[in-house]
Write a structure and sequence with these properties.
Layout (H helix, E strand, L loop, with lengths): L1 H34 L9 H6 L5 E6 L7 H11 L5 E7 L4 H13 L3 E5 L8 H19 L5 E4 L10 H8 L5 E3 L2 E3 L7 H23 L11 E4 H9 L13 H11 L4 E3 L4 E2 L2 E2 L2 E3 L5 H23 L5 H11 L1 H27 L11 H29 L1 H4 L2 H28 L26 H7 L5 H10 L6 H7 L5 H12 L21 H7 L2 E6 L2 E6 L5 H10 L3 E6 L2 H11 L12
Length: 601
C-alpha cells in the first residue's frame, strides 16, 4: 500500500528523535518521583518576621504599558507585606501615555519613582533595565541609601504578598532567588492561554525543581527574580558596566546562566499552596495565536539560537546536558507537527483494515523502527499524563482534561514560532544586525470575585498579624447572626477600621485610599444614575483608557458589578475608601446624600 509505505518512511526517523527526546523527559520525571520524599525547608512565619528587612529595589521596564501600569502599581503596593522597598519604573521620553499613567501612582506613593531613559524607545528590555538600574544608583547617591536586593518585574504582574519576604529570607544564603511564575486561569475554550498554563505548571512543578536537585543552573524567569547587589555588580564587571545584556532577547535566561558560571548560588522557591492559591507571581500570557507565536519566537531566538551562538557546547557535562534540554526544541518544534501528521496517517491507513477485518502487516518497516515507534508512543502517553497531573495540581482536573488537545495545538504554535525565530536570526546575520526585540502586549486581571476564589477575611487578618488566631476564633463564635465579621471586630475594638480596610484590599486585590483631588472629574461623578450610586454606595471619579474608575467603601460583589455594567459600557475599576471618606466625597459630588454608613466585611 503506497500510503502505508509513506507512513513507515516518515515514522522511522521521527520515532528515533521522539524516543531520544522522550527518554530525556522520562528521566526528569523519574528524578521528580524520587525527589518527592525530600522535603523543602520552608522558613517559619516567626523566622520571616525576625529577619531584618534588607532594602529592596523593584525594577519595572515599560514601553506602551499605559493600559496596565497604574493598576499594577496600585494593586501591588496595597498587598505587599514588606515595608523597606522602592519601585523604579523605566519609561521612554517618547511614550507620553505611559509616563502619565505611571506618574499618577508616583504622586501618591513616595516609594515609586519614574526612571526616564536617555533616548527614545523602544530599545530592548535589557537596555531599559540597565537605564533603570543606573537611575536607581543615582537615587542612592542623592538619598544616601543602598539597595541590597534588586527584583525584576513586568507591568502585568500580580506580585504575591509574601514574595518580597521570601526573597529577603533566602537572599541570606543565595545570590539569586527565583519565585515561581504561573499564568492566571482562563476559560477552557482559550486553548492558546491554556497551553501556557500547562507548560508553566509542568515547568514550575517538575523541570525547575529537578534542575535544581541535579545542580543545574536556574534560568531567571524575568519576573519575580531577586538578585543580591553583589551578584549584579559582578555581572556588570563582566559586561563593561551593563548588568543586563542589551543585545540578548532573553536577558533573564542569560543572567541565570552567567551567575551560575560565576559561582553564585541560586535557588528556585518551590510552589507552595495557601488558602489564597499558590505562592507565585501571576499574570496573563498571550491569549491569541499570533501574539503567542511572536513571544515564543523571541524565546527560541534568545535561548536557543543566541545561546548556541554565544556559549556553544562548551563546559562541564552537567552544563552541556542542560544546554541540550533548553535547545532541543529547535529540532523538536519543527518535527512535532510532522509526527502528529504521521500518527494521523497511520490511523487513516489502519481504519480500512479494521473495517475489512484485515490484519496490518508489520513488515512495512524494520523491526527496530517499529519498536522505536511503539516505545516513543508509550513515552509520549506517559509525558502527557505527567503534564496533565501537573496542570491538575494547580488548575484542577476539569481544566487538565484538555491537556492532550492543547499539546497538539502547542506543537503547531511552537513550530510556527521556531520558523519565525530562524527567519529572524538568519536575516539579522545576513544583514549584520542585532536581533530586534519583539514586545508582548499585556493585559491586567480584574480583581478577584467576591464570591469565588477569594481567601476568607479571617485568614487574611491572621496572616497580616492584625489579630491572633485565638481572638479570631472567639469573635467568630460570638459574632451575632446577620452582622459582618469586620463590623463586629471594629465595634468590639479588636481591630481598627484602617487595618480592616488594609485587609480587605489585600483580600480582594483592590487598591485602597482616596484618589488625588486632581483625579476627580466633576462631570464623571454624574455618569451613573443617582439611585444606582446611592444603592451600591459608589462614586465614579475618572475615565481613563476606556475604563471607569469608581470609589466605594464596599468590596464589590458580582451583583454590584453586574448592575453597574448595565448602566455603563466602560470597563469598571474599583478603589476602596473608608466609609467616612466616601461620605465626604458623596456630600461634595453626589446630588443627594449617600446611604447610611456601614463597615463592610
Amino acid at each position: 500500500m503506497p500510503l502505508d509505505h509513506a507512513v513507515a518512511l516518515l515514522l522511522a526517523p521521527l520515532a528515533i528523535w521522539i524516543l531520544l527526546s522522550g527518554m530525556d523527559d522520562l528521566f526528569i520525571s523519574l528524578v521528580l518521583l524520587c525527589m518527592r520524599k525530600k522535603r523543602f525547608q520552608w522558613p517559619r512565619e516567626a523566622d520571616l518576621d525576625r529577619t531584618p528587612e534588607r532594602r529592596i529595589a523593584i525594577l519595572v521596564p515599560l514601553w506602551k504599558e499605559h493600559g496596565v501600569i497604574g493598576e499594577m502599581l496600585e494593586r501591588n503596593l496595597s498587598v505587599i507585606r514588606y515595608r523597606n522597598y522602592d519601585v523604579f519604573v523605566g519609561v521612554y521620553p517618547n511614550d507620553e501615555l505611559t509616563i502619565r499613567a505611571a506618574a499618577a501612582p508616583a504622586k501618591h506613593h513616595s516609594n515609586v519613582h519614574l526612571a526616564m531613559g536617555p533616548h527614545n524607545g523602544p530599545t530592548s528590555k535589557g537596555d531599559c533595565l540597565n537605564w533603570v538600574y543606573r537611575w536607581m544608583k543615582t537615587y542612592e547617591t542623592r538619598q544616601g541609601v543602598r539597595f541590597e536586593i534588586v527584583i525584576t518585574h513586568d507591568a502585568e504582574d500580580l506580585i504575591h504578598p509574601d514574595s518580597l519576604r521570601l526573597i529577603n529570607w533566602f537572599s541570606g544564603a543565595y545570590e539569586m532567588v527565583q519565585v515561581p511564575v504561573l499564568p492566571l486561569p482562563t476559560p477552557f475554550r482559550e486553548f492558546t492561554h491554556g497551553l501556557y498554563c500547562d507548560e508553566f505548571a509542568e515547568y514550575q512543578t517538575k523541570d525547575i525543581p529537578v534542575r535544581q536537585h541535579l545542580r543545574g543552573f536556574i534560568p531567571s524567569n524575568g519576573v519575580g527574580t531577586g538578585f543580591s547587589r553583589e551578584a549584579l555588580e559582578l555581572l556588570a564587571a563582566t559586561r563593561h558596566g551593563k548588568v543586563f545584556d542589551p543585545e540578548c532577547l532573553t536577558e533573564d535566561y542569560e543572567n541565570g546562566l552567567r551567575l551560575h558560571q560565576l559561582g553564585c548560588p541560586q535557588i528556585f522557591v518551590p510552589l507552595r499552596f495557601q488558602s489564597a492559591g499558590p505562592m507565585a507571581t501571576r499574570e496573563y500570557f498571550p491569549r491569541k495565536a499570533r501574539a503567542a507565536v511572536r513571544q515564543r519566537s523571541r524565546w527560541v531566538a534568545g535561548i536557543t539560537l543566541q545561546g548556541w551562538q554565544r556559549h556553544g557546547w562548551c563546559g562541564p557535562w552537567r552544563l552541556i546536558y542542560w544546554f541540550w534540554r533548553d535547545r532541543k526544541g529547535l529540532v523538536g518544534n519543527l518535527l512535532a507537527p510532522a509526527a502528529n501528521a504521521s500518527f494521523l496517517l497511520a490511523l487513516a491507513s489502519r481504519l480500512p483494515l479494521v473495517r475489512d477485518h484485515v490484519v496490518w502487516r508489520p513488515n512495512l518497516m524494520p523491526a527496530w523502527a517499529a519498536w522505536c515507534c511503539l516505545t516513543a508512543l508509550a513515552i509520549s502517553v506517559v509525558q502527557a499524563a505527567v503534564r496533565t497531573w501537573c496542570a491538575a495540581s494547580i488548575y484542577g482536573w476539569c481544566f487538565a482534561a484538555g491537556v492532550p488537545l492543547r499539546m497538539l495545538w502547542g506543537n503547531v504554535v511552537n513550530c510556527l514560532a521556531t520558523i519565525a525565530a530562524l527567519r529572524q536570526f538568519i536575516l539579522a546575520r545576513l544583514r549584520h544586525r542585532t536581533l530586534a526585540w519583539r514586545k508582548t502586549e499585556h493585559d491586567y486581571p480584574q480583581p478577584v470575585s467576591a464570591e469565588r476564589g477569594r481567601p476568607r477575611l479571617g485568614e487574611v487578618l491572621v496572616r497580616m498579624r492584625c489579630v491572633s488566631m485565638d481572638d479570631l476564633e472567639e469573635m467568630l463564635l460570638t459574632c451575632p447572626p446577620g452582622m459582618r465579621l469586620g463590623e463586629y471586630m471594629v465595634r468590639g475594638r479588636k481591630l481598627s477600621e484602617q487595618r480592616l480596610y488594609e485587609a480587605l484590599s489585600s483580600q480582594s486585590g483592590i487598591p485602597l485610599g482616596m484618589p488625588d483631588a486632581g483625579e476627580v472629574d466633576r462631570l464623571t461623578t454624574r455618569v451613573l444614575p443617582a439611585a444606582t450610586a446611592r444603592r451600591w454606595r459608589v462614586l465614579p471619579y475618572r475615565v481613563a483608557v476606556g475604563r471607569l474608575h469608581v470609589v466605594t467603601p464596599n468590596v464589590p460583589t458580582e451583583d454590584m458589578t453586574r448592575d453597574l455594567s448595565t448602566v455603563s459600557a466602560l470597563e469598571l475599576r474599583f478603589r476602596l475608601v473608608r466609609p467616612e471618606e466616601f461620605d465626604a466625597l458623596a456630600r461634595e459630588y453626589l446630588p443627594h446624600d449617600a446611604v447610611e454608613d456601614g463597615v463592610p466585611a
